Amino acid sequence: SIESAMAGIAAAEKELSRLEITAPFKGLLEAKTAELGSLLQPGSLCATIIQLDPIKLVAFVPETEVNRIEMGAPAGGRLAAGGDEIRGAVTFLGHAADPTTRTFRVEIEVPNPDLTIRDGQTAEILIGARGTTAHLLPQSALTLNNDGALGLRVIDAEGVVSFQTVQLLRDTVDGVWLTGLPEKLDVIVVGQEYVTAGVKVDPTFRELDQ
Known about the structure:
210 residues; mainly beta; Elongation Factor Tu (Ef-tu), domain 3; conserved putative lor/sdh protein from methanococcus maripaludis s2 fold; four-stranded antiparallel β-sheet; 14 strands; elongated
């Protein structure tokens, strides 16, 4: 009958439409796995397509810095090959630390219309973060209190010693960057291991500009 013939044509057209495989996004054909005439099983790999515009940069941020980063924050970088500078924005910020490195995954989306950035390239990445007031001090000034907390021994206007806890931001060849301190304070940088909180001392001052 005409109805059965029409149904057969519709079924045949549907099967013919399955001969053309399309990707759900625009990209580049990176690898062609299937060869002409080969038999493909459902779910088997036939080709690899990569999307390079925009391209995603992946970085891992230490737990001491992750709270300073926000979604949409500006980010940039410099490619290891050629030194070209690139700019983008943070599009993903992980909430679970890597169990091995204790770092958090950050993804940055970068426009790549001319496809000059290739998949798998390495880059030095800089991310715009909320500012933090910090002090640069000699590493030798750091000490521990009786509870094992990291900090500094400081003195007040009367020369009385107290312990000030700190957070270590970065360790450099010039010293350590510390936060959690007031804008100005007098820090004991020599002999701090020989005094305890509550003791009054007669200090000799040395001005630090950092």
